[in-house]
Amino acid sequence: MRDVSFEVASGETVGIIGLNGSGKSTLLKLICDTLSESAGRVEKKGRVAALLELGSGFNPEFTGRENIYLNASILGLSKAEIDRRYGSIIDFADIGEFIERPVKSYSSGMYVRLAFAVMANVDADILVVDEALAVGDALFSQKCMRFLRDFKERGTILFVSHSTGAVVNLCDRAIWLEKGRVKAIGSAKAVSEEYLA
């Protein structure tokens, strides 16, 4: 990443688009502190909850139940807070008896169901979602999009997707990355149209 500079206002939803290898996931990892910048700085205010690539934040040997406690604690919740939200997480994930099985036995769709359910229940100020919804089934993807639309009323979202339709429908603005640099920033519709052209 080089010369990437932008601000996101509180309550804004920003889509990040670009070809594979353009730096989208790297940017989100820098924002979430899973990577450290070698130059420059990333500043954020508030609790960040992230759904990055499949597998981040979960131990494959642990059951779904154990991973809820692990992942939610990484996102800043105490055991008592997780206990109070556990039912809501289970309801949102809707994976039934699989909650007691190791997540290494999960399909990618079940994995994202559980990860999104945890993220949706941590009272974050900023949500970071990296293309994870692409592996879910249609009904769960719709459920997630409803959650994100509701979350827009109270928080900030950074949303990476190859679906420019999802970016246009959900986001206020978009950032187009190309080869680790910002190619364009502007309205989600205008930037998406320029990217597709």
Any descriptors?
197 residues, alpha/beta, six-stranded mixed β-sheet, 7 helices
Describe this protein's structure:
It is a single chain. The protein is of the alpha/beta class and 197 residues long. It is built from seven helices and six strands, in the order βαβαααβαβαββα. The chain has helices at 24-31, 64-74, 79-93, 108-119, 138-151, 164-170, 188-196; strands at 13-17, 48-51, 126-130, 156-160, 173-178, 181-187. A six-stranded mixed sheet has the order 2-3-4-1-5-6, with helices on both faces. A hairpin with a 2-residue loop joins strand 5 (173-178) and strand 6. Helix 2 crosses helix 4 (108-119) and helix 6 (164-170) runs antiparallel to helix 7 (188-196). It is globular and about 45 Å long. The mean pLDDT is 90.
Provide a compact summary of the structure.
The protein has 197 residues and is of the alpha/beta class.
